[in-house]
């Protein structure tokens, strides 16, 4: 059973990450006075993956110790809400680290292709249902 303080830490980290994502989007929009959401999304994905990589590397080296609540706040909550790409990258890295290069490739390609396909299918279904273009 997950301790209540860990659940609270995940929730607080998630709120902070979501606000961070929004802040980056606003920053990019305000800087160029136009919507460039893909660039903002790319930025948070790259930044989040970098932070996840640094944290994971430090944890493997024994130089960074987080309890359940700390991991919940930073890795699951904050980085998970800032960008789920960081978790995706960690999962792919772990597969490769275990020698599962083929499985990692299938995971990466499948995640990107299936996620895009699911998005387009969902958007197309709603457009069809609502009679839009």
Structure description:
The protein is mainly alpha-helical. The protein contains five helices and no strands. Helix 4 (85-97) runs antiparallel to helix 5. The longest helix is centred in the last third of the chain and has 30 residues, at 101-130. The chain starts with a helix and ends with a helix.
Largest sheet: none
Shape, please? globular
Count the beta strands. Answer: 0
- What's the pLDDT, averaged over the residues? 86
Strand content: under 5%
Euclidean distance between termini CA atoms: 47 Å
**What are the secondary-structure elements, in order, as H or E?**
HHHHH
Put simply, the count of helices is: 5
Low-confidence stretches: none
Helix content: over 70%
SS-based class: mainly alpha
**Radius of gyration, in angstroms, nearest whole number:** 18 Å
